[in-house]
Design brief:
Pfam families: SEC-C (PF02810). By secondary structure, the protein is an alpha+beta fold. It is about 35% helix and about 20% strand. The protein has helices spanning about 10-15, 40-50, 125-140, 155-175, 195-215, and strands spanning about 1-5, 25-30, 55-65, 70-80, 85, 95-100, 115-120. Helix 3 (about 125-140) runs antiparallel to helix 4 and helix 3 runs parallel beside helix 5 (about 195-215). It starts with a strand and ends with a helix.
Length: about 220
């Protein structure tokens, strides 16, 4: 376990302090032969069954400097000697993670939404955060929050397709450094902010409102 150096950016410190007062550390990823990609909770439970120790909950932190920071709910393994180790490989192939311990949160088989923050004045990133929140609330309403695999039919499938299409489009625009004044991905030739921006914000906000209420009432 490597304590995060004092020169870590104030943006990261401020973001993490809003989530948890736990320690922020760099951890090496030391996957086991049975470790599944991005499946931290079952991975750690199997590790405990074989080698003892404990499960620790917290948040995996990453950022695009000056643009965007994100926290994903995550679990790591604590050995009986007190060593903290991440045993879960990730899709990016990184061999270390920035981990924020959060002793006040646990896991009850329900999906947990990521925490995201725009670090810039780029409204595209606000829209990207909104569409990701819409995706979370739409795919986790009712019993879906306990399901690893979900199926959607008819109008629900159409809504999900719309969410994914805009999520991917906004990702591509942000990755190449665009802002809301860029050409709209729909191909109209108009600027995004003059074309689909208002519709996207209205639709995504409506999805969050409707299905967030459904989650709370289940």
């Amino acid at each position: 376990m490597e304590i995060v150096p004092p020169n870590i950016t104030e943006e990261v410190k401020d973001f993490c302090s809003e989530i948890s007062t736990g320690p922020l550390v760099y951890l090496s990823i030391q996957k086991e032969k049975y470790s599944l990609l991005d499946e931290c909770f079952p991975n750690v439970q199997k590790k405990i069954e074989q080698d003892g120790g404990n499960i620790l909950y917290g948040w995996k932190i990453w950022m695009i400097p000056n643009l965007f920071i994100e926290a994903e709910f995550h679990s790591i393994w604590e050995s009986e000697q007190g060593d903290w180790i991440d045993i879960t490989p990730n899709r990016s192939g990184e061999n270390k993670i920035l981990f924020l311990h959060d002793k006040n949160n646990g896991y009850n088989d329900k999906q947990v939404n990521n925490i995201r923050k725009n670090l810039s004045n780029n409204r595209l990133i606000d829209d990207y955060i909104l569409i990701n929140n819409a995706l979370y609330h739409f795919t986790n309403y009712g019993e879906n929050s306990f399901q690893r695999v979900r199926t959607f039919e008819d109008i629900d499938a159409d809504i999900l397709e719309w969410i994914y299409e805009w999520k991917e489009s906004l990702e591509e625009l942000i990755e190449i450094g665009n802002g809301p004044g860029c050409s709209c991905p729909c191909g109209s030739g108009l600027k995004y902010k003059k074309c689909h921006a208002k519709e996207l914000r209205k639709m995504a906000a409506a999805i969050v409102k409707k299905f967030n209420a459904d989650i709370r009432n289940k």
